[in-house]
Recover the amino acids of this structure.
């Protein structure tokens, strides 16, 4: 098993077993589960739904806690700067947070994002994915890898923010989601 896949599977298991409260454990989809449907507005003003990509492309949904904060800025900047590693893979990739569309639009501009940053200001989608922090209206840093049929094929909770784009490209290849 390669390092990235092993790390993601171990991290997902540990997160489910130890780091998440019981209510979130019940909500977070597991590898092999159907990913929850979502529709969120991107920093480009367009609405994106998981079903838009069914049968066409794999989807990466990389949650982050808060725009304009240290680790989140590094993560979203990494997707922008390392995006050339993702663009030829025939996948749709997004970062997402519970920030407003207005905040994420400004944030996308500040980090030079050439991909949509999705907004879930009420946290409804984050709750479906089991990534809401129990004590704050923010999402945890978790990346979901979803295949063309909407099945979760990988979950990563051990994100190295500075290398998020490159690690996502590597994980997509290892999971066979680039075709």
């Amino acid at each position: 098993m390669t390092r990235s896949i092993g790390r993601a599977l171990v991290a997902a298991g540990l997160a489910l077993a130890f780091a998440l409260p019981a209510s979130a454990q019940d909500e977070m989809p597991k590898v092999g589960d159907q990913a929850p449907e979502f529709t969120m507005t991107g920093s480009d003003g367009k609405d994106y739904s998981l079903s838009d990509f069914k049968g066409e492309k794999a989807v990466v949904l990389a949650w982050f806690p808060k725009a304009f904060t240290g680790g989140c800025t590094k993560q979203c900047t990494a997707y922008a700067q390392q995006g050339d590693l993702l663009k030829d893979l025939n996948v749709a990739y997004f970062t997402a947070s519970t920030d407003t569309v207005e905040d994420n639009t400004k944030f996308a501009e500040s980090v030079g994002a050439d991909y949509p940053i999705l907004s879930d200001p009420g946290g409804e989608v984050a709750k479906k994915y089991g990534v809401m922090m129990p004590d704050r209206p923010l999402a945890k840093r978790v990346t979901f890898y979803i295949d063309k049929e909407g099945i979760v094929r990988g979950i990563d909770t051990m994100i190295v923010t500075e290398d998020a784009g490159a690690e996502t490209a590597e994980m997509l290849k290892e999971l066979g989601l680039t075709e």
User: Anything to note?
Assistant: The beta strands are 39-42, 47-49, 58-63, 91-97, 117-119, 143-146, 152-156. The chain has seven helices and seven strands. Helices lie at 3-19, 22-27, 70-81, 84-87, 101-111, 124-128, 164-174.
